[in-house]
Amino acid sequence: MAEVIWGLATSHVPSIGAAMDRGKTDDPNWKALFDGYAPARAWLAEHRPDVAIVVYNDHANGIDLDFVPTFGLGTAERYEVADEGFGRRPVPDVVGHPELSLHLVESLVDEEFDLTVFQELQVDHGFTVPLSVWTPDPGDAWPCPVVPLLVNVIQYPQPTAARCYALGQALGRAIRSFPEDLTVGVLGTGGMSHQLAGARAGFINPEFDALWMQAIETDPARLAAMSREELIRQAGSEGIELIMWLVMRGAMDEQITKVHSDYFVPASNTAAGIALFENRAPRPA
Amino acid sequence: MTQAPATRAPVRERGTTAMGTTAGPGRRDLPGTPVFDGDSSRRGLRMNRLFMSLRHAEARERFAADEAAYCREFGLSAEQERAVLDRDWQAMIDLGGSIFYVYKLAMIDGLSMQYLGGVFTGMGEEDFLAAMRAGGRRDG
Asked: Where's the Extradiol ring-cleavage dioxygenase class III enzyme subunit B domain (chain A) (predicted)?
């Protein structure tokens, strides 16, 4: 059977990728962010999974507003990195894992999560920036095949936090029922608090982010109980994308062990968070 | 649908209140927070399509050559066309633009999300950027 060995939650702000692509990670405005990634990256380099699942959203690059799937899953052998307007990021295309994808689709549909299936999908910064947070220098290839799981977070009504958490739990069961022995890393992306438009643009809520960071580890059900409106109020109109962290969390065990977390303001207009968890109960002190 | 949507949402002050109706499941109390909902997306569909097309270099060239013609090609309403030509960023949001799509146009103009933040808040880019670097803006 396959098993989830770790979960990584991280913001996917495009400027984080741009800072890396342009060699600005030591710039005073960025250095603390990247220093905060270092312990997670070191641990992840020692814990390479056989396959990863990235829970993310597209930003007007791979899909448009003609179709707005609430949840979608890629089943392709390969995912091209999108050109978002001014040349694609200088990072490798993504190798998929169609066998696992098809198994996940069937298992999740059997559990009544009726996902949209993507046989072709270009992936944008929402997908590649988290991979870069994990692996800053991938060379010719990312560390392992990756399966994209799309969540609509840009058009209201987004799925509820509770539904995202339940999807994650079903995803965990689906992974465990895969017949092959595979280790799996799950990335939940987006957040933390931010709002891009409106009179409240620039909104950051560090108290809420701190609560979220703690509860995602120890009390995710509390977060899953939040309404869409409450999430927008507390985290900002774009901060609602934190619901994608709940998909990752749901796929993990009830008890997990934090490896590392960090918090940084601002990455562009966003509070950037990273949280890495190993999928095992904490060892007694 | 053959006619470009031209009407604004029924109850809304520009840039100050949530979009959407005042009754039913769309009812929301989120001051200063435009929520890109189904109604916005329906009204903004053609304009957002235009923005998305600008990912491609040849589309950007055609847009630059005759912006108004490009808008007509995509079937924008007169108001939406005016907002695009005037770079009235707030109006684009009010007329159904998704910020992620509107941003494609801003990028063509060499403008950042901080610039847009300065517009939406009325603070100007420099003060907005300073506020972000000081930890971001807070409610109240």
From this structure: 9-269
